[in-house]
From TrEMBL:
Family the entry assigns: Belongs to the metallo-dependent hydrolases superfamily. TatD-type hydrolase family.
UniProt keyword Hydrolase present: yes
Keywords: Hydrolase, Metal-binding
Lineage: Bacteria, Pseudomonadati, Pseudomonadota, Gammaproteobacteria, Lysobacterales
Class of enzymatic activity (EC top level): hydrolase
Name of the protein in its database record: TatD DNase family protein
Length: 255
């Protein structure tokens, strides 16, 4: 039984056929999904979605790519949501130094604030780190007392080791299915399995076999098969281990 540790099932791309997407995921063996928010305006929709499905689990956060939608008082509102709703994680939050036009200092303020909330509520944190892994690692060290995952990891093997030493996992999905992703495939082939989470990041990051298509959680079955092939392991063993990692990190209930 698989766990999709990062899927934006609340995104408008799924509004027309969300129930069918959920059914296909379950049929593919996806027993649970973690759905991270990106902005305060979407918290209500996410709560409603997860309330209707026992296998969907909400996380609340302020994504760095959506700075235009955030306001300083949203950190206070996020704190209220965490206290009231008790989600499985804080996130999606982090730093993005790839997209032009995003104020770096403003990103840092929101990220540091959310790391502080994660520590206060003893929740794991779901981190977005694009061209920002070193600074993310430094921020995690500075705040201290944290655990979580850097999703869609795209850093080096050394950066991955630094995260593991801080009790952070790395999340891998569609990009690992591309044959040219040599660095990423090398990391997944040899890394300690206890630090690996599988994800789709649907509707984004389609697999090599689904180029140009909307991604969806059912495709996690193909991702685990790729990871097993790269590691020379059994698909069922990889699925079992990564699902156990996700359940442990996010304190998900047993199926």
């Amino acid at each position: 039984m698989l766990v999709d540790s990062h899927c934006h099932l609340d995104a408008p791309e799924f509004d027309a056929d969300r129930d069918a997407v959920i059914a296909r995921a379950r049929a593919a063996g996806v027993a649970a999904q973690v759905i991270p928010a990106i902005a305060l305006a979407g918290f209500g929709k996410l709560r409603e979605l997860c309330a209707g499905h026992a296998d969907l689990h909400a996380a609340y956060g302020l994504h760095p790519m959506y700075l235009a939608e955030h306001r300083p008082d949203h950190l206070g509102a996020l704190r209220d949501w965490l206290e009231r709703e008790r989600p499985v994680a804080v996130g999606e939050c982090g730093l993005d130094f790839f997209v032009e036009g995003l104020d770096a200092d403003e990103q840092r303020r929101y990220f540091s604030g959310q790391l502080g909330l994660a520590r206060e509520f003893e929740l794991p944190v779901i981190v977005h780190a694009r061209r920002a892994v070193d600074e993310v690692v430094a921020a995690i060290r500075r705040i201290g007392g944290l655990r979580g995952v850097v999703h869609s990891f795209s850093g080096s093997a050394e950066q991955a080791r630094q995260l593991w030493n801080l009790d952070f996992m790395i999340g891998l999905g569609g990009p690992v299915t591309y044959e040219r992703a040599n660095k990423l495939r090398g990391i997944v082939a040899t890394m300690p399995i206890e630090f690996l989470l599988l994800e789709t990041d649907a509707p984004d990051q389609p697999l090599a076999t689904h180029r140009g298509e909307r991604n969806e959680p059912a495709h996690l079955r193909e991702i685990v098969a790729t990871v097993a092939a790269l590691r020379g392991g059994d698909v069922a063993d990889i699925a079992r281990a990564t699902a156990a990692n996700a359940r442990r990190l996010f304190a998900l209930p047993p199926t």
